Every structure is written in C-alpha cells, then in structure tokens.
Amino acid sequence: MSNIYFLSKEELTNIIKDRFHPIDCNRILSAYDMADQSYGDKKTLSGAPYFFHTTRVARILLTEIDVNDSDLIIASLLHDIYKTTNDLNDEILSYNFNSYVAYLINVLKEDFEYIKKNPFRSEGLPVKIPEDDYLIIWLAEHLDNLRFSVFSPEFNPINYILNISAYLFPLSENTNNPKIKYLINELKKEKNKLLS
Questions:
Q1: Mind listing the pLDDT tens digit of every residue in the chain (196 residues)?
Q2: Domains of the chain from N-terminus onward
Q3: 18, 36, 152, 165: which has the fewest Cβ within 10 Å?
Q4: Is the CB of residue 53 less than 8 Å from the CB of residue 144?
Q5: CB atoms inside a 10 Å sphere around CB 25
Q6: Rounded (10°) CA dihedral 11, 17, 20, 24
C-alpha cells in the first residue's frame, strides 16, 4: 500500500532520527507500537485500519507543520486510544510517556473546556500551552479525516466541515501560532473544495 495511506514505522524512524533526542525517538516509536496494538481491528468508515489515520495525523504534525515536540507526536498517535481499549489509563500513559501526554490525551477525549476545568500542573516539565497543543492535534485530525473522507450515510463531509467551522475555527481565530494558522488554512481549502 502506498505510504500516503499511512506512516510506516520505518518512515517514522527516518523522519525523527535526526530531529529528536534518542530517548524521545524511543518514546515516539513506543507510542507507535502501542497505537498499532491498541487500535487493533478498529476500522474507519472507509474500511481502512483506524491506526492508519492516527499515523497520518502524526505525519501532518511532522512533515507539514514541523512539530518538534515529542509529546505532541505521541499524543497524535494515541489521540483516540480511550475509544478503543480499556487496557490503558492515565497511570500507564504517564509511566510510559509522561503526565503531560496523559493529560493531553484526556483533553482530546473530552473537549476544549476540559483545559479550563482541569489546568495542567507541570511537575517539573517544560511549560506547555495545552490550548495550542489541543488545537494542533484536533485540527490535524480533522484535516486528515477530510482528506481521506468517503461519502456515506454515516459520514457526510459537508456537514462535518460545517461543524468544524462552527466549533474549531472560532477557538482558533485569535491565535498567533503559525502551526494552527496553517491547519486552519488547509481546512478552509478542504471546505472550499467540498462547497464549490
């Protein structure tokens, strides 16, 4: 299968090996393996393995917006992990990655308001901006969904992009983050394709 449909472990290794510290490379590759095992037989509406979608989200972060934060790459690979398995919890994710990754995956499981209700306490980790990290992963997730969408009774891309426009675009409109701006512009391009 062409590598446009998923990010292989070999390709991921080649992308990260010179950009991340070896410890972070191991963490990212561990998240890749965990995602591969945990998403298991779950399929997208198109019938493709759901795992392929999560690797493409990681690819967007790595190759399109040049994210060099291993926590974001890990969270992008595991962003829907709680929907597919009961075998993982915050303690396991914190132990394997760190408490910020576990926190970010919980934010992604819930919604943007989770950040306000449950602010992240750093515990000696570098200062992060959870709002930006949430938006980067969710916007990339939705961008991938639109790029690889299949019209079906279960998924109408036009309604999907209109819902994204109504919810995520306003959350992103006051940002100065160039990565978020890029993703919004790409989503607007997809919206224009669908509505033209």
A1: 334 689 999 999 999 999 999 999 999 999 999 999 988 888 877 778 889 999 999 999 999 999 999 999 999 999 988 877 778 888 999 999 998 999 899 888 877 677 777 777 766 655 576 889 989 999 999 999 888 876 666 677 788 888 888 888 888 888 899 999 999 999 999 989 888 7
A2: 9-195 (1.10.3210.10)
A3: 18
A4: yes
A5: 18
A6: 80
Element containing residue 18 per DSSP (H, E): none
The two tokens of residue 53 are 């979608």
- Which whole-number Å values give the CA distances from 38 to 30, 78, 101, 107, 180, in the listed order? 12, 9, 16, 19, 28
Burial of 183 (0-12, 13-18, 19+ CB in 10 A): buried
The residue to which tokens 């990290």 are assigned: 133
Cα torsion at 61, 136, 79, 69 (round to 10°)? 60
Can you name the residues that pair with 49 across neighbouring β-strands? 43
Structure token pair of residue 182: 């890029």
Q: Which residue is it, tokens 């390709």? A: 11
